Amino acid sequence: xxxxxxxxxxxxxxxxxxxxxxxxxxxxxxxxxxxxxxxxxxxxxxxxxxxxxxxxxxxxxxxxxxxxxxxxxxxxxxxxxxxxxxxxxxxxxxxxxxxxxxxxxxxxxxxxxxxxxxxxxxxxxxxxxxxxxxxxxxxxxxxxxxxxxxxxxxxxxxxxxxxxxxxxxxxxxxxxxxxxxxxxxxxxxxxxxxxxxxxxxxxxxxxxxxxxxxxxxxxxxxxxxxxxxxxxxxxxxxxxxxxxxxxxxxxxxxxxxxxxxxxxxxxxxxxxxxxxxxxxxxxxxxxxxxxxxxxxxxxxxxxxxxxxxxxxxxxxxxxxxxxxxxxxxxxxxxxxxxxxxxxxxxxxxxxxxxxxxxxxxxxxxxxxxxxxx
Length: 373
Known about the structure:
With 373 residues, the chain is of the alpha/beta class. The chain is built from 14 helices and twelve strands.
């Protein structure tokens, strides 16, 4: 028996997604940009999936842009908005690297956060001015699970930089938060299928009118000239099926997974020298997140022992795996580099069971004891 507790990196495919994809991995192989009957069947599948995604995300189908994943969606939002409208870029210091790196490429200013990884609204207000072209603030943090005051931030932008486009990376939020209401006033919203039970390599960017967006890639006229390239029909169909399943069961899963997360957090908290990184967040945390700081052990050695015991966890964002630097999120929260290197992220999901939590608690306690000898 093992325990997969790295759902924030990738969650298992939902059965609904697998079933929906299979026909488009075998018999229905057409290119949806073509004109013959096989191509038209593929195009119909993409159009139907677009309708489902739009309905689940509170958008018009014409506002849904399919991409190659959350990273591409973030890059398209930041760079596409700058290319279309100009202006400077603001983003929080705890954004995903996809936002931070894209923003840095165009000379962005980062806005500070507090010890709970919540953006400093006073600092944001002080940085806003008429020359700001885009503000990017994630809905939920992918490492520590903190929910951001997105509505309050959007209100500040509309007041102090009324010409700016607002983007939110909602990749970590879909299974746990009502993204329709949370992002209702946001211009650009990014999503990634493999974080809610869909396939890897499929993303969505919601582009609400009248937000201007220039393409980052160049080629064909797909996605209303906003994202060229042949559609991954099977992936798009699977993403839509997974999204429908995730949003349809959200309330039940939040309650179930939240209870398991709390059980895990209590158990880990009973181990000496282990504390929750963000025990309380003013605007809440996603139900799946259990990030802890573990004193007196080497982070990498602990993760190796957990893996040997069948427990999958991580030190932070999967895209930073193997990096020697401490988490930029924890540093932005005010932790020292040495303290930041004690962070371990456990993240639960739709397939997590009580038995997995119990197994993890047993393995973690033994691994910490072994490393402290």
